[in-house]
Amino acid sequence: MVSIDVWNAAVDFPIFDAKSRSLKKAVLGKTGGKIGTESKVPIIEALHDINLSLSHGDRMALVGHNGAGKSTLLRLLAGIYEPTRGSARVEGKVAPVFDLGVGMDPEISGYENIIIRGLFLGMNRREMERRMDSIAEFTELGDYLSMPLRTYSTGMRVRLALGVVTSIDPEILVLDEGLGAVDADFLEKVRDRLKEMVQRSGILVFASHSDEFLLELCDTALWMHEGGIKEAGPLREVLTHYKGRDPFEHLSSEAHGEHEDSPATIGSEEA
Amino acid sequence: MQPTSTLTAPSEPPPPGTSSRSFTRAFRDLSTGFHHRELWLHLGWQDIKQRYRRSVLGPLWITISMGMMVTGLGVLYSQLLDSPLSLKLPHLAVGFIIWNFIRGCVTEGTEVFIANEGLMKQLPAPLSVHIFRLVWRQTLFFLHNLVIYFILLAIFWMPIDWSVITVLPATALIAVNGVWVALLFGVASTRFRDIPPVVESIMTMALFMSPITWGVFEITQKPNTAWRAIFADINPLSHYIAIFRDPLIGFDQHFYHWVVVLGLTVVGWALALVVLRNYRARVPYWV
Q1: What pTM value is reported for the model?
Q2: Do A53 and B120 touch (CB under 8 A)?
Q3: Which secondary-structure segment (H or E) carries A233?
Q4: Tens digits of per-residue pLDDT, B194-244?
Q5: Tell me, what's the ipTM?
Q6: Does A79 touch chain B (CB under 8 A)?
Q7: A22 contacts B192? CB cut-off 8 A
């Protein structure tokens, strides 16, 4: 059973500057008498009062201004951060895509990088080797896969990372924006692949500023504001409040027609 | 309206056992980490290949540089301490081989999470994956260095007998210790960034304070100097060195070295488990 449940979760980051992080202060601070019971380390409350329940078939968009806590929430949902207060339970195989460059070794070949990334996502070597052909085909990298990764352009790296993550059938897919560096043709392919995946896989959480992308992949939305949930609900409704206007008004003339067959994507239908 | 309900608060209260601070979670971290062995075996080996990429001799350099160092130091110290080379060189070489492993686990252990910050913030994986990767990498270095022992054995024919077999459990025990050391120091250093340089300087000092370049048999050979053995006995590291070295070079084995090492293993693991229980979930916040 694939599910994400979050109860009253908060994420606080302690900010250690060089002084408070040092042993000297921790040791001498105690011997020197009282400094007060107050925590000496300043804290940034990145998320607070998060209550959320996602289950199979949920496709949630995450919107909000920079610094609203979108990425932190994604990491919480991916199980990277465990809540400082409250609790969270993530059941299912999570495939997060945040920074596409991290976890890639520039000195080894694309092929090797695919294997390593797959291993990190819980696959084994044989399973990854079996998928190699389809990844090579999807990414269109061809012979480049045997070249060291440092010879790749940014867009090519993005292709590689997306190729891996979309090939492994994760139960929970957590995507952060950053698909910008690829060309339009490939974006189209990614979109198709993601759509297809979302139908099979359990849960998608997607943070993006691209209304069009959100419209196609998600049906519900969560508006983050200053670390809390400002609004949760159907995609179109939340986006309208977030933007102050209906983002799909003018979109409908060119894009709506092509999505007529899948009304679920605009959030007008029950999940 | 309907989709709203799927996003709001979970209907049931949080089940018990979702707390981050529990021994269950700590043990699960270790067991799932170990279960991902394909990952850390691969990464550890990759680390070594990476270091010697595009060099002609590749990882053979590990063996060569260790071989050069122990030969030079062995010749020098056999003169300084008046020991025959056939006794001194194997003693010093085997000491350095195991020292390298211990030092690697300790000093690199302090950096194990700090160095993997990017990975830890991007991909959810048990903490212990990074630990196992480190200990495995050090084991590979160790195996490369072990070649030197066999070369020395072929040259000097150290007087070993069947009791050499104890070197196998000794090596395994030292590796098991490597795991708790890296875990404990890794978590502590992520929180307190002064620990890595402190540990680094202690380990540099410990190299000279431990019976590696010198042996107890040398410092106690003059009359009325038997008390000097205490220099080795009060140093916990010398017991780790002893259980590995003594069988390999045909020295008499002493049971008390094992007792000390086993005791330290239990204490160390207990400490590491408590730290893992309490601070496992904090490490991604600290890196």
Answers
A1: 0.87
A2: no
A3: strand A228-234
A4: 999 999 999 999 999 999 999 999 988 888 888 999 999 999 999 999 999
A5: 0.81
A6: yes
A7: yes
